[in-house]
Design brief:
Blueprint (H helix, E strand, L loop, with lengths): L8 H7 L8 E7 L11 E6 L10 H13 L4 E4 L10 H13 L4 E4 L3 H4 L3 H10 L2 E3 L3 E4 L7 E5 L10 H6 L6 E5 L6 H4 L4 E6 L8 E2 L3 E2 L5 H5 L3 E5 L2 E5 L17 E7 L1
Parallel strand pairs: 1-14, 2-3, 3-4, 4-5, 7-8, 8-9, 9-13
Antiparallel strand pairs: 2-14, 6-7, 10-11, 12-13
Helix pairs in contact: 3-5
Length: 265
């Protein structure tokens, strides 16, 4: 595949199809703790599965990052799978420059399976240079006026070593805990641990789906159950993004790329 896709021609070809640079912005308002009114809403922007590489058109990435910047988030959250196939110095620089350009005072990220299959140190360094902190079973407490909120991230459920207990412990006494996992298969590691909202990706919404939409193939047991969108699991709200980029094929049908903006009240 590396040889067949040399030069990134699949992404360039797909970008010539009218309308294929479309990226949806999904807006959600969510109340995580009715007993604690927020002095002002907390704004989160979330993107996953960028898949910089030979199958993702640059026009799609340009559109996604423009939407993220226009959202003016308090926190930019990235859900992993930054590359497809190899992480190269050129791809790492592209990732760094795109993340750096988003005007958000706090930037957080987790890693995905495609990242851990390649030279993930390049990716982690690029994110750090862009001002993003990579959370691996760790958490960050937000500053005032949202200092009652902690955002935690667990390692990739497929290829990493997720430890929900350790990540939650890092939240300290934060009243509100927001989780990030590359895949919805990370939910069991956080279920029952006081996490109110879990942001995930990985599924691509099937990437190729039938009208409805009805995904044909979705990876992971919980991905099959929750291929995209908002869901409830007990006291936890789960969001599954369709992601931005593609793998294997440069094609999406009835699985439009998306970024999400959450207004937490």
């Amino acid at each position: 595949m590396r040889v067949a896709y040399q030069g990134g021609w699949p992404a360039r070809a797909w970008s010539l199809v009218p309308g294929k640079a479309l990226v949806q912005r999904l807006d959600h308002a969510i109340c995580l703790d009715p007993a604690r009114p927020r002095p002002r809403p907390l704004r989160l922007a979330f993107a996953s599965d960028l898949h910089l590489g030979p199958t993702t058109p640059k026009s799609v990435l340009d559109r996604a990052f423009r939407l993220l910047d226009e959202a003016a988030p308090d926190v930019l959250i990235l859900g992993g799978d930054y590359v497809f196939l190899d992480a190269t110095p050129a791809i790492a620089r592209d990732l760094r420059d795109r993340v750096r350009a988003v005007r958000a005072p706090i930037k957080l990220a987790v890693m995905g399976n495609h990242d851990l299959w390649t030279h993930h140190g390049l990716i982690e360094d690029a994110l750090a240079e862009a001002g993003a902190r990579v959370l691996i079973n760790d958490a960050v407490r937000l500053p005032t006026p949202h200092d009652d909120v902690a955002i935690l991230g667990i390692d990739d459920p497929w290829t990493g070593r997720p430890d929900g207990a350790w990540a939650v412990e890092a939240c300290g006494d934060a009243a509100v805990r927001i989780g990030v996992s590359h895949s919805p298969d990370g939910l069991p590691f956080l279920r029952g641990r006081g996490v109110s909202l879990l942001l995930t990706g990985h599924t691509h919404g099937g990437q190729i789906a039938l009208p409805g939409p009805r995904p044909i193939i979705v990876p992971g047991p919980l991905g099959k159950r929750w291929p995209f969108g908002l869901h409830r699991d007990g006291d936890l709200t789960l969001f599954v993004s369709r992601g931005v980029g593609t793998t294997e094929l440069p094609i999406r049908t009835f699985a439009t790329p998306d970024i999400a903006v959450f207004t937490v009240t």
